[in-house]
């Protein structure tokens, strides 16, 4: 299922944008003239054998030790490019939307994302993005809230 069909079939309100190629969440923030704290960066990890999509601001990084404490899990590591391609097929590498349920995994959202009314993220390609309210993103992603992000 594509992101657009998921949104449309479930009645989520969003605004699709097209931009010059952006290969990182920080680049997306720059080309869309949006603060990095409002652009969601997905980071996929494997925690005790379970896939988890972590959603955090573009200008943050995942604190793996804190994430392990919050889950709780004993073995937490970042997914490699091969694992990402297998889990998130159909998306350009580095342009996966931060909605884990599209890929059969839970979404864990860093609490630092709760400070703004709207968010933006890549929509599966390096040229497409989505802008939506934070409330609508939370309705679409159904994330669990945690504190695992740190300013980069």
Summarize the structure.
By secondary structure, this protein is an alpha+beta fold. About 25% of the residues lie in helices and about 30% in strands. The strands form three sheets. A five-stranded mixed beta sheet has the order 5-2-3-6-9, covered by helices on one side.
Report on the architecture of this protein.
This protein has a single domain, classed as YbaK protein, CATH 3.90.960.10. The model has no long low-confidence stretch (mean pLDDT about 95). It is an alpha+beta fold and about 150 residues long. It has helices at about 5-10, 25-30, 65-70, 80-85, 135-140, and strands at about 15-20, 40-45, 50-55, 60, 75-80, 105-110, 120, 130-135, 145, 150. It starts with a helix and ends with a strand. The strands form 3 sheets. It has a 5-stranded mixed beta sheet, covered by helices on one side.
Shape: globular
Report, as a whole number of angstroms, the end-to-end distance.
Answer: 33 Å
Run of helices and strands? HEHEEEHEHEEEHEE
Number of domains: 1
CATH first level: Alpha Beta
Structural class: alpha+beta
CATH architecture: Alpha-Beta Complex
Look up the CATH topology.
YbaK protein
* Number of discrete helical segments: 5
Strand order of the largest sheet: 5-2-3-6-9
* Count of distinct strands: 10
Q: Give a quick account of the main beta sheet: strands, pairing sense, barrel closure.
A: 5 strands, mixed
Which spans of ≥5 residues are poorly predicted at pLDDT below 50? Answer: none
pLDDT averaged over residues: 96
Name given to the CATH homologous superfamily? YbaK/aminoacyl-tRNA synthetase-associated domain
Helix content: 25-40%
Q: What is the percentage of strand-forming residues?
A: 25-35%
Rg result: 14 Å
């Amino acid at each position: 299922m594509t992101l657009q069909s998921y949104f449309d079939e479930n009645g989520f309100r969003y605004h699709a944008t097209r931009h010059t190629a952006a290969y990182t969440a920080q680049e997306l923030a720059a080309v869309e003239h949006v603060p990095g704290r409002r652009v969601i960066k997905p980071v996929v990890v494997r925690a005790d054998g379970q896939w988890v999509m972590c959603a955090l601001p573009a200008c943050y990084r995942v604190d793996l030790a804190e994430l392990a404490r919050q889950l709780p899990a004993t073995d937490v590591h970042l997914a490699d490019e091969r694992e990402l391609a297998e889990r998130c097929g159909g998306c350009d590498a580095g342009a996966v939307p931060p909605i884990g349920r599209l890929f059969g995994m839970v979404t864990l959202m860093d609490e630092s994302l709760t400070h703004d009314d709207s968010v933006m993220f890549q929509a599966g390609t390096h040229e497409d993005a989505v802008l939506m309210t934070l409330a609508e993103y939370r309705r679409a992603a159904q994330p669990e809230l945690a504190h695992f992000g740190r300013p980069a």
